Amino acid sequence: MAERSTGEYTEAHRRWWGPAGWLWLWLLAVSPALGQAARDTPPRATLLPPAALVPLVGPLQLGFEVAGPSPAKHSEFPEIEGFRKEKVVSTTTTRLLPSGKRQVQLAVLQRYFPYAEGDYVVPAFDLTVNGQLLHSPAAQVHVGIELGADGRPPAAVGSLDQLLGKPKPKNFYEPPDHAFLALEADQAAVYVGQGVRVRLSLYLPPANQAVLNFTDFTNQLTALRQQLRQPTTWQTTPPVPPTLPDTVRRPGQPLLLRFGLVDYTYYPLTPQALSFPTLALTLAKAKLLKNPQPGEDERLTFYKTYQAQPLQVAVRPLPGRGGTTAVGELALRENLSLLHPHTNEAFTYLFAIEGSGNPEAVAPSAPAPPPGLDVYGPEVRQETLGPDQWRKSFRYRLVARQPGPLALRGLVRLPFFNPATARYDTLRPSLRLVVRGAAATPDATPADDAFYGPALARADAELQPLGVYQQVRRYAGWVLAGLLTVAVVGAWRAGRNG
């Protein structure tokens, strides 16, 4: 009986340790990774819509909810015209679900208090919460006395208004900001292919930063960039746009801060003039109290639009031949790795172009080496030297076959148009070198090999498919898969018979 019980246990164990057993082990191994991935995924946030009716005593609340008690990282809430922006309030709510589990919900609310009764517009804004981008559309809000269940205003509200009076916007004044928006070009007229830098900047005195603030900046900047596009130009942007304002001083004016908004360089492809429209930027500006008391710092926020005048840049065609010639103030820098190389010895020649202009249009002619010189390359490299200055290098690998003096003047050339002198010019190599050693023997050719002709005659002329190696690999994989299947089935049947 003992042997039979042991046999039955072994048979049951073998039956259990089949596909179900391997599936169970796989689930045990994968479940911790799935749980960790679920824990690492931040909870989704949802925006809370603003109320349509706000009491005169406030507040209007904008915010979002997110599951979990952990603090949420979020971007700034917008300014609302007619409201005073107060601090952000966070509340945590715990709910007991029917299943017995506890659900924790975090609510983050930005509070606004109205200055007076009326209808206001909450502008559309974007809010980033834990890396998640949330968009809130524009909404209408009415500020007034909240009526009770009987349709009458509460007595406390009415008596408070009679005693203290309602907030009056006329008690605020708009301070001068001396800010302006300007669209500027570094040149009034350029040639076809010559670069012109156009910048859109906001200027204001340093002391007036406290009353101005950007609002809906991302959407406004996208719209401004679309208006500045020119379909007949090659357009480039600086590699790293500035994040902080710089200081400028114009003749006859005090020191100003310049906030760079858009900075493009245009290279016209046709003689058509560049035309830029009127551009507008809306900022949030604060009105201040006319007679503030000690400790009072109330402000009335409203929106003010600044406009930049339209801009025209004339484009002149290239004189004479024109064509696809590079345009710019260019200079040649060249270098040799060896001044006295030996025959059959590889050395490098550097043909580097420095200057201003469109580097994408700078390309020397195809190499035309003199007899006895082999040329390989070039390897192209481009780097920035400063504002509107760059270097584009072409590195060639040379091998001389004959000894003696060697001039590289006719190796490559770069014709270009210089807009500063309004003349065409050509950059050519000017270096000379002396090759030492004996003359190199010519390389052997297939015709010199006595066995090449008979071997070529015996060769099979039938074309072979390019994917023959992939087909062999695929067939070998099928054979291995079949052998593995036979081995698994044989082991399984042997286990059952045992």
How would you describe what is shown here?
It is a single chain. The protein folds into four domains: 2-40; 45-167, Immunoglobulin-like; 180-316, no CATH class; 326-435, Immunoglobulin-like (Sandwich). A hairpin with a 2-residue loop joins strand 24 (373-386) and strand 25 (389-400). The relative contact order is 0.09. The strands form eight sheets. Strands 24-25-23-22-27-28 form a six-stranded mixed β-sheet, with no helix packed on it. The chain is α+β, with helices and mostly antiparallel strands and 498 residues long. It contains six helices and 29 strands.
Concise account of the structure shown:
The chain is 19% helix and 41% strand. The protein is of the alpha+beta class and 498 residues long.
Question: Main attributes?
Answer:
498 residues, Immunoglobulin-like, 4 domains, 5-stranded antiparallel sheet, 6 helices, 29 strands, 41% strand, flat
Outline the secondary-structure elements:
Layout: H1 2-16, H2 19-40, E1 45-48, E2 53-55, E3 60-67, E4 83-96, E5 102-114, E6 118-122, E7 125-129, E8 132-136, E9 139-144, H3 155-164, E10 172-173, E11 180-185, E12 189-191, E13 196-204, E14 212-214, H4 217-227, E15 233-236, E16 246-249, E17 255-268, E18 274-276, E19 279-289, E20 299-308, E21 311-316, E22 326-336, E23 346-357, E24 373-386, E25 389-400, E26 404-407, E27 414-418, E28 423-427, E29 432-435, H5 452-458, H6 468-497
Parallel strand pairs: 2-9, 12-21, 22-27
Antiparallel strand pairs: 1-3, 3-5, 4-5, 6-9, 7-8, 10-19, 11-13, 13-17, 14-19, 15-17, 16-17, 18-21, 19-20, 22-23, 23-25, 24-25, 26-29, 27-28
